[in-house]
Amino acid sequence: MKSKRTAIFFIFFLMLVGGMLQAEKSLELKRGEILEIGREDMLFVSITSVCEDKDLNFYVLDSKEHKIFKFSEDGKRMFSIGQKGQGPGDFQNPHFITISVKGHLIVADELYDISFLDRKGTFIKRVHLDGRLSLGFIGESLFYAWIWKPKSRTQVMVNSQNDILKTFFHVSKEDFSVSAPDDSGRLVMFNFSRAEYTPSLLFAHYGRYSAVSIGDTYDILILDEKGDVSSRIQRQVRPEKFHKKEREYLEEDIKRKGRNRGWPRSVIHKAIKSIPDHKVFIDRILLTEKLVFVFRISEDISDEESPVPVDMFSLTGEFLGPLKLEKKPICISEKHIYVVHTDVSGNLFLKRTEYQISGS
After folding, report:
1. Overall number of domains in the chain
2. What span, in angstroms and rounded, lies between the C-alpha atoms of 224 and 297?
3. Domain of residue 264, residue span
């Protein structure tokens, strides 16, 4: 009887290990044709957001110029629109663009406004969301934002009337600021954060779906265009520790920025002491029509060439496997991956690469 139980346990153990190995099967990104935009003609001052429509035209947001460029699939410049202002088709602080299911070009300002344009660049309407920050698009009359609360930043979903319909994750004020007395003895808040250890409020959108999460918890809500949770992505993994070289890199960065900003020594010391032992889980999320790309913190943050680990899931929450990339993309579609580059002269350009993902 004992030998039979041992055999059953051994079979169960092999099945468990086999399942774990299958779940951790490495994926490989195979690259195809490459297209570079802006390398020769110094077209962009900044590249803040990129999206692609159903005809494979792509749109590039230059937030510093308050302008959107549209390109055909073969890279031909079709038009550019936008300027700083408050008139129809003007933008104040644009930071995010996407294409809605109806084919509208959605332009979200960092503060307050979301503009709807057609794919020819013609202005349709603007939705004003006073008091909302880092705006994003969920559905035709549903929008993402975060708001200030007394002790936190909190993610919310609002409608066109600016009513808060849902709240999601929040990050405590203690996670991104330190307080110290000024010369008069009054307590002053000094904000400082690093993506590697400060929990970020994360949002992504593509087609009919959006993702909402926070960086220090491996918990991602996938929302449909009605704002309902269609799936939930969770993964039981341990946070990675900062090694000695990484901690030294972070400490030097705080000292340098503190000196440049004129911080008191006590604030610099408190900011250094606030560095935790572990990295956050998630740095960025990107969606395609069928996939969720979860970008983790680089394996060595002190090395700019360090690979970026990526966890891949289906939109239903199935873990497909890990992947490593040389650099974080700004946009991924079903066919293309878009990455921002800077050449040796400091010129900013966009590289679009055809890709396929397969098991290694």
Report:
1. 1
2. 27
3. 32-359
